[in-house]
Amino acid sequence: MAYTEEELKKELETKEYEYGFYTDIESDTLPKGLNEDIVIAISKKKEEPYWMTEWRLEAFRAWQEMEEPEWANVKYKKPDFQDISYYSAPNKKPKYNSLDEVDPELLETFKKLGISVDEQKKLAGVAVDIVMDSVSVATTFKKTLAEKGIIFCSISEAIQEHPELVKKYLGSVVPQKDNFYAALNSAVFSDGSFCYIPKGVRCPMELSTYFRINQAGTGQFERTLVVAEEGSYVSYLEGCTAPMRDENQLHAAVVELIALDNAEIKYSTVQNWYPGNSEGKGGVFNFVTKRGLCEKNAKISWTQVETGSAVTWKYPSCILKGDNSIGEFYSIAVTNNFQQADTGTKMVHLGKNTKSTIISKGISAGQSQNSYRGLVQVNSRAENARNFSQCDSLLMGNRCGAHTFPYIEVKNKTAQIEHEATTSKIGEDQIFYCNQRGIDTEKAIALIVNGFSKEVLNKLPMEFAVEAQKLLEISLEGSVG
Amino acid sequence: MLEIKNLHASVEDKEILKGINLKVNAGEVHAIMGPNGSGKSTLAEVIAGQEEFEVGEGSILLEGEDLGELSPEERAHKGVFLSFQYPVEIPGVSVTNFMKTAINESRKAKGLEDMPANEMLKKIREKSEMLEIDRKFLSRSLNEGFSGGEKKRNEIFQMAMMEPKLAILDETDSGLDIDALRIVANGVNKLRGKDNAIIVITHYQRLLEYIVPDFVHVLHNGKIVKSGTKELALELEEKGYDWLKEDAVV
Ligand SMILES: Nc1ncnc2c1ncn2[C@@H]1O[C@H](COP(=O)(O)OP(=O)(O)O)[C@@H](O)[C@H]1O
Ligand SMILES: [Mg+2]
Asked: Taking CA A369 as the corner, what is the angle to CA A339 and CA A337, rounded to the nearest 5 degrees?
């Protein structure tokens, strides 16, 4: 097999989306379009209390007044918000106690993904709450969690069963009016997960959710709320993959994390939504608001591996409110073909002796554009705040782009801010060296990319790291010919 | 084992190898010497399948099979190993992980299962002890921040792990101090056997005191201008290459 840079570029472009398929499950869908009646209907369908309906309406009214934002480095055809159906639920809706009761078609879907539920079950210590087209269809390991007083359920269930907690924390970190997409999400979110760890409890297992988008023309508006009480600890995994389809799918999720005094939350994401075909057609639009609040001595780590989506706009952030609190952001973003990613983080230092670390690894191939946008903000009262940022870019070929936009706003002289950035290319000599050792070009690229991403991959829980490596390979390898 | 017939190779229309003939039998060690720029590394890389070079006339046969159409990795699977003059860095990939991948990819090509973890560990332990390599070294990123000598020792470690049929060592001695040279030579000698062949490319006769060659060839301006036994290396050490250059003109 001949290898030149030109051929490498071609290989990378011809990689088709391997997980392109979708499950045909009958669903119960609201008519397309968005108005107050639809918002009320969503709330009714979910049998929500009055305060929740009002909360949604408030968000909807705010959203109507807002303008969809524009970004310098992301170009796309804006979604028509009246051409989207805002609610769909599998109509065979019972809650399953065991996986045997789950729709065989769904299990088949998991098989195709190579993350069969059977396999999941064997991975000791992982509780899986599968979100299938906006409504949870399976929840496991609930008992073990219940014994520790841990609540891990769908947000709808939480609204019914734990209204006091939801009322207290929902929108406390990402207010309804925070931004255009957050307001939209607040008005129409159909499901998502809720997690509550009581005081002093260490969650004994990784909590894991797999997201799927399924219904034609259905937007996905997930809402996730994680509350870690004083001195508690939880590691939360979020992962997803979407079926191949022609029309763009909008995803506007909101994730709120609350880490009270001395608590720690690790939030890991492996995101693999359909990025569009090699001409840039189709693919998921991913506009996500993720934010965590740290009280005294608390710590929040965001770790993410992004390989999917046509357009990704995402800045997991930490508000370091409490003294001595710590925020971390570890990210790998892969773009190929015509994908556009604008990701990064915001670290807002409010408390004294607050510390933040940012490690961002961007990998671009094809004609994709990969931007890192980070904001480190140090407030005037944040004595001795410290930040370390490192942004590394790996380029494949000459037609892709990597951009780094570090913004730093410091209002306290005692702050220590460090920023490092590197850009490198996969060298033909590296590939030949691997080839000479019997490693073909496809595997060599995977090896080099994994090496480049190692510092971030190491932050992922073991079983997730293996899956993330697979995704990196899939999104960059081509069919060698 | 290896038979090279009238091999020509060029890069960007510049001919570098101008008709090389070389026959290496199983069990033999051949040394290739020659001044800088004579084409030694080019020859090594062309045998390994580096496609940067265009092979014009001539052929390379390994155990009677023409390598011409084979990719570098296929040649590696057939037992060709090159210890690079300038090993490249692969950040974030540990020596151990790299070797594990290399060995398992070669096994896969032969239809074998992955090497069991305990067997792999045993092999790593054995070979690293033989080459006096610290275990901590093996978890470092491949060649990143390695000294010249460490890189070369690491190449020989990889050779020992892969157990090739034909090993080509391109200036493995440069950058090694005398103790390291002895250790590395010892590692190479362990590979010597009736079923293997080794080609040692070097400038200096020093290495050949430890790895004693059966034959010595002098490469000059893309051609083998003289062949002989190990005494030729001593002669070269004494007289330099100039007297051969004149020979070549004749
Ligand atoms: N990629 C290349 N492009 C252009 N010239 C090259 C390339 N590789 C080698 N050469 C040239 O070929 C000749 C032989 O080089 P090389 O094989 O490295 O010699 P040696 O190893 O004997 O010192 C030199 O003149 C060198 O400049
Ligand atoms: Mg050389």
From this structure: 40
Asked if A81 contacts A34 with a C-beta cutoff of 8 angstroms, the reply is yes
Helix residue ranges per DSSP H, A259-396: none
For chain A, what is the mean pLDDT? 78
Angle at the Cα of A436 (from B197 to B56), degrees rounded to 5?
80
Q: Per-residue pLDDT for A176 more than 60?
A: yes
Question: What is the DSSP secondary structure assignment for residue B137, as one 8-state letter?
Answer: G
At what angle are helices B148-162 and B178-191 packed, to 10 degrees? 10
Token pair 């080099």 in the structure block, residue: A448
CA angle A379, A382, A386 (to 5 degrees): 100
pLDDT digits (tens, 9 = 90+) for A241-280: 444 444 556 788 899 999 999 999 999 988 766 666 666 6
Average pLDDT, stretch B13-17? 92
Average pLDDT along chain B: 91
pLDDT band for position B239 (50/70/90)?
A: confident
| Cα separation values, B111 from B99, B104, B114, B115, Å | 18, 10, 10, 12
Tokens for A424? 């490198």
Pairing of strands B2-11, B14-24: antiparallel
For ligand 1, atom 9, the nearest C-alpha belongs to B42
Q: What is the pLDDT of residue B245?
A: 67
Helical pair B230-239 and B242-249, crossing angle rounded to 10 deg? 110
- Six-digit token string for A364: 């671009």
- Alpha-carbon span A370 to A367, nearest angstrom: 10
Is residue B248 within 8 Å of B234, Cβ to Cβ?
no
Q: State the smallest CA–CA distance between residue A438 and chain B in angstroms.
A: 4
pLDDT value, residue A317: 95
Q: What is the DSSP string of A339-361?
A: -EEEEEEEEEE-STT-EEEEEEE
Q: Was domain B2-184+197-249 assigned CATH 3.40.50.300?
A: yes
Closest ligand by atom to B53 CA? 1
The stretch A40-65 carries a mean pLDDT of 92
Q: Tell me how far apart the alpha carbons of residues B167 and B165 are, in angstroms, rounded to a whole number.
A: 7
Q: What is the DSSP letter of A32?
A: B
**Amino acid of residue A292:** G
Highest mean pLDDT among A39-43, A285-289, B242-246 belongs to A39-43
Nearest alpha-carbon partner for B57 in B128, B8, B103, B22: B8
Q: Residue A413 has what pLDDT?
A: 94
**Ligand 2 centroid vs B84 CA: distance in angstroms?**
9
The DSSP symbol for A98 reads S
Inter-helix orientation angle B95-109/A441-452, to 10°: 160
A352 to A260, A291, A376, A381, B56: CA distances (angstroms):
16, 20, 15, 7, 70
Q: Is A438 on the interface with B (CB under 8 A)?
A: yes
For residue A102, the tally of other CB atoms under 10 A from its CB is 16
Query: Which residue in A113, A283, A102 sits closest to A210, CA to CA?
Result: A113
Q: What is the mean pLDDT of residues A93-105?
A: 51
Q: Would you give the distance in Å from CA A424 to the centre of its chain?
A: 26
Q: What is the pLDDT of residue B204?
A: 81
Residue A436 with chain B: CB contacts under 8 Å:
48-49, 72-73, 76, 80-82, 84
Left (φ > 0), alpha (ψ -120 to 50) or beta: where does A309 sit? Answer: left
ipTM, 2 decimals? 0.96
Q: What is the pLDDT of residue A221?
A: 85
Look at residue A320 in the predicted model and tell me its pLDDT. 97
The span from the CA of B3 to the CA of B1, in Å, is 7
The pTM of this model reads 0.79
Q: Which of A2, A437, A443 sits opposite B158 (nearest CB)?
A: A437
pLDDT at A97 over 90: no
Please state the separation of Cα A316 from the chain's center in Å. 9
B158 touches chain A (CB under 8 A): yes
